[in-house]
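Bench log, entry 3. Co-assembly request; chain sequences pasted below exactly as received.
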Amino acid sequence: MISANAALPGFYDHGEVARSVLIAIAASYAALDLTGRVTAARGRVRLAWLSGGAIAMGIGIWAMHFNGMLAFHLPVSVEYDWLTVLASLLVAIFASSVALYVSSRREMGLVEALAGSVIMGAAIAGMHYIDMAAMRLPAVTRYSPLLVACSILLAILFSLSALLMAFDLREETRWSVPRRLGSATVMGVAVSAMHYTGMAAASFIPASPPDLSYAVNISSLANNGISIVTLIVIVAAITTSSVDRRASTEVERRADEALREAQAKLARVTRVHAMGELAAAIAHEVNQPLTAIVTNGNFCLRELAGGGRNLEELREAIAEIVNDGTRASTVISRIRTLLAKGAPERAELDINEVIQEVTGLIRSELARNRISLLTDLTAGLRVRGDGVQLQQVLINLIMNSIDAMRTVTDRPRELLIKSAKHSDEVLVQVQDSGPGIDPGQVDRIFEPFSTTKAGGIGMGLSISRSIVESHGGRLWAVAEPNGALFEFTVPTQD
Amino acid sequence: MAEAEPIVFVIDDDPSVRRAIRRLIGSVGLQVELFGSAKEFLHSRRPDAPSCLVLDIRLPGISGLDFQRELAVANVHIPIIFITAHGDIPMTVRAMKAGAVEFLTKPFHDQDLLDAINVALERDHAKRKQEAEIAILRQRWESLTPREREVLPLVVSGLLNKQIAGEIGTSETTVKVHRGQLMRKMGADSLAELVRLAERIGIPNTKP
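Structure output for the full assembly:
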């Protein structure tokens, strides 16, 4: 260190400097790690994490500084005023709590980040110069204004980058630990740079011996003690935080699993529910041909019992029996496809066939509600997916449209189903002429248990969306002026 | 009076069910007319003959049950046989309470439908006969003079000629003449029969 003419020559113990940098890095890592815990916690737990974290971090920052000061050796005996040192420790804890508070908030805007870093930086710089003021030695401390300003600026810049890094790293990801380590190193080096700039700002001019009341001499043993205690505190903080994180990850994982299980069950329930709604329509669909068959059959028996002279009539009746039998079996095979249970299949499908299967099933439901069906299908749209699940999505959207159009009396009730190619996806649109969706509700309707229907359980759209997403597609709604428009995409086969 | 040929109307939205029902009913020699919707039926000209309606509950536009009520409001009293793919108990109760003849679940037994049709036609026939008789009685009542219409309720209340004369302020002989006239005009041979006829067209006893 180059000092003014008469300044005392001093030198750094490189080992101790290295130790102070290490403490800075450890404290930085603890800070980044704790931010995540403070963010994840709520209420009193959050307060506990915030204050505990601030204490551990504050001790770390302070110890780094104090160590850095002790690493500087002067040819005279240096003692420290312990009350002032204690004050500097409290300032360090305050700076840490500001850092943790700002970086753990839900959102951090530019104003918060700047204000936080100015407070934090000023507090750290304050801590540094309070510590310097705690020095009791037979010399007068002189400061270079430029370097002091530099150190304060560095403190603020370091604080800003620390806040941004902490905010960015608080979410748990796979790369959290290595990224935190890297950031902690950068931060630790920055803290040290700030510190040694501050140190460089001071020069010591020999003077009369100082007032040594409240002053203590820090032996190298005490110096080691401070470092060790600090590291223990930091390690304890990091360990606690990692145990807590692991526990909460485990809780989250279980909750996730339970949620998935519940969703799978609900998907089944909703399918059954949708089947219930459809059952009446399908029963009708099968029963009509059966009624015609039985009645025609009885007619034939009567004719034959009476001699069976009217062969033309008999032939007609039997031809109708055959037709109606075929009709009934078509319906039944459709139901069988629809009911097919088991793991989702991934097969090559023509999306138009899926659409036609569904429209075949709901034809009578549409007729009963006086809804005209318009289709605009682009040929040759092949997708990879589970036909039954995609049918379920379509049935859900169409049943919603039917329900929505029940109240429409002043305009035609129309259901338009479109399929089209959309870059490398297939786009399916289901549009009705019902009252439409409230633009404010467009996204809410996909949330579980949100329903606008009196008897609905509000799972249909939520499940439909997860089905479409499991196919690698998207499902969304558009608030149109006349009626609702639902669109979903499924990736094309190739 | 001569009765027109009975006729069965069938409303079902499924053409193949309609045709099958026509064959079955036609095979027992009854006339059948088919309709695809309630509206078509309402807009048709129906012959003045004993008739009944075979009605599907599930119709496009209006449910069979609502249509039953609509017919009652429009004063069309035709016996109805419901046929449905899925009849539940409340539905059945509602239909029967509103006067349905039978409630059959599709696919129905052919004999059940034919029996129900017979009952319905019989019921309509009886009702029409009764209505015709009442119409005749009403005509006879219309043919009475105002004085005779005044006397008749007193006669059927069991008053003696003398009492009636006192009641309406005339002589016993005059009452006797009115009485003879109204008995003849109403086609009643005895006081007992007159009482019965008066009851049928709703002429109350004025004196208990």
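Residues 110-142 of chain B form the longest helix (33 residues). Chain B touches chain A at residues 13-14, 16-17, 19-21, 23-24, 27, 58, 60-61, 83, 85-86, 106-108, 110 (CB under 8 Å).
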